[in-house]
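Hello forum,

I keep getting stuck at the same step: I have a sequence, I want structure tokens, and every attempt I make locally crashes halfway through. Rather than fight my setup again tonight, could one of you with a working pipeline run this one for me? It's a single chain of 403 residues.
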Amino acid sequence: MAQFTFTNNTYAGEALAGFMASTLLEADSVKRGLLTVINDVKSRKIILDVDDDVKLQDPSGMFNDQGTTASQTESYLDPVIYEFMKQEQWDNLVQSWEAQRLSPGAFSDYEGVVDLSDFMVQRYLTKIQIANERLYWLGKGATKEATFTAPFIGLLPSIAAASGVYKVGLSKPSTSMAATAIDASGVVTVSSTVTLADGDVVTVTAVTGSSKDTTNGTTGAPNVQGQSYFIKVLSATTFKLMRNFNEINTRKPATFTGTATAATVSYINASNVLTVLGEVYAQLDPADRSQDDFNLQVPLHIGYAYAQAQADKAVNVLNAFTDKKKMDYLGIPLQLMNHWQANTILGARASNLFLGVDLLGDASELSTVYMKPYTNDNVVRMKARMKAAVNFKFANELFYLGA
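Reply #2:
Ran it on my machine without issues. Output:
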């Protein structure tokens, strides 16, 4: 049975008597309108489209059909059901300084502290929303919170694998470099680190060797292949992988086992972000980028690199390094994505990206029951049930840049 554990059981915080928690990034793709939400999806939802060409013909006294065939195609939203369930035994709180807030009488030891109960419910809700955000975009494979058995691919992996999507990579010299070694502590050796800086985010691919990321424990440790990291430059030819980008909310330092003898390191930072965005802009479909709901979606680190590059380019501009920078590029808004894939840029219309849910509010609904009046168990149970599916409609109207 779950119980509270304490790493500090002194009365040092008695005067404050409040609860604090680590900061979390908001999960807000739906709030910003980056996805088209379809409610009441209880089973497979079919998205239909019909298209045809137009041919301008010679005039004719008799009707002469242009001879083309209208094409109807289907895509699907197949919802996956998953739940959050948590049980806590509150009486362990009497071991802490929170005992001062309990009413007299032994039975009060089991009823919990009201503000702690409210705090935990809101905290769990925030983390559920973040888990859903990861799930929608990254899929189950890159969402550590997702332990259910049903497959859930996610939008970015689906787009990256789809035929017809306009896809480009980061294999150019300005955005990638060859690594000759990754040691067991995560130190990477390259020919030069002159274009890198502390805090840059690199994506590691084409790994040769046995290097694994053990940040979340050795059991099931993922290969370093395909992972992204914040770095610290150590020398003219080495840098260290400091933190897995997917651990942005836990701040866990990256740990490793095994080594690699070769790899490719790709990155978008202040040294190349203007070139990358310029090339992206030139490749966008004019018909799509002129639409009001078109966005370029980028992870946070690319937004920060773009802000730094703007400041660096602002010669003789007052407050160049203090004013907030506008996040658009040549009139196209850049949407900074809080829980996303590193070194990735997606150009898409919101009307081309679909999120199917039974009810959007399910992700904000957490039922809480104190079990003692019903079962005489001194526990509190919390449960949330969600149903979701994601997909896109027109692959040929999507732009995808990835490592």
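The longest strand covers residues 380-392. If your local run keeps crashing, start a new thread with the error log.
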